[in-house]
Amino acid sequence: MHRIDKDTSGLxxxxxxxxxxxxxxxxFELHKVERAYRAICYGVPDANEPRLRGVRGxxxxxxxxxxxxxxxxxxxxxRQRQAVFFEGGRHAVTRSRLLASYGCPATLSLIECRxxxxxxxxxxxxxxxxxxxxxxxxxxxxxxxxxxxxxxxASLALVSGFSRQALxxxxxxxxxxxxxxxxxxxxxxxxxxxxxxEALEKDG
Length: 204
Known about the structure:
The protein is α+β, with helices and mostly antiparallel strands. The protein has helices at 18-29, 50-53, 122-129, 153-161, 191-203; strands spanning 9-10, 34-42, 58-61, 65-74, 82-85, 90-102, 108-115, 167-175, 182-186.
């Protein structure tokens, strides 16, 4: 019924009948499906960061929720990538909320992202647009240098060895297209994501 990017872990819903397909498709179209992702990004995307106030398409809602509203379309020169536009392309809205930050000074954060729309690479492109690209993202995140004193050696080793975008489709909720029952599923973190978080939490 929908896609998650290659190397993103977590939940998908698959329809096994035409009736289920049409019913779920309508819920996706009307943005009635609950989708929550967990991600580890660079920096601290927080309302108290003055720089973010000047990023076009970014504003903050109650509860320190960062709302990113842009259009997305294929990059003009690299057709494998998506890029942010404000004219043309497809409307895209992502909301993210800071859950925890790690390091001294803080260099990485655990965030929750919720999709209002579902565009290709949406979370990855939007977070990169704000300057908070995802750890390990080979296309949009980049390899950022983290000071040796910011994290423990164990955490730095795990960070440098994280070989995919740190993005996990953690929650998926929808109305059963036949019975009408409310369904909600949660996927635990995969081993690489969990191991990294445990090391970061030890750093405080």
